[in-house]
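[Discussion] Sanity-checking designs against the backbone

I'm trying to build intuition for which residues belong where. Below is a structure token string of 78 positions. I'd appreciate it if someone posts a full sequence so I can compare it with mine line by line.
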């Protein structure tokens, strides 16, 4: 029984590791829109300059996930 549970958990984890590859890549325009929106939110939330990039990257990836797209590795906040 223990092995069955472990096998099931492994299979779920393995599927999750490859599931993001099944999602479409977001169009550049959507990434730009989400980046600007997240930059605005960072300003409203008084995020300091040192933390701003990571805040925006996490925010953009959350928005992309919510809309069924793959995550991005970087964003342009300039």
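Best answer:
Here's mine. Compare freely.
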């Amino acid at each position: 029984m223990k092995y069955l549970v472990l096998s099931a958990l492994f299979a779920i984890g393995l599927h999750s590791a490859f599931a993001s590859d099944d999602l479409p890549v977001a169009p550049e325009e959507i990434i730009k829109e989400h980046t600007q929106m997240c930059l605005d939110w960072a300003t409203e939330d008084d995020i300091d300059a040192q933390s701003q990039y990571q805040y925006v990257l996490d925010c953009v990836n959350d928005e992309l996930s919510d809309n069924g797209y793959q995550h991005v590795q970087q964003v342009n906040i300039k």
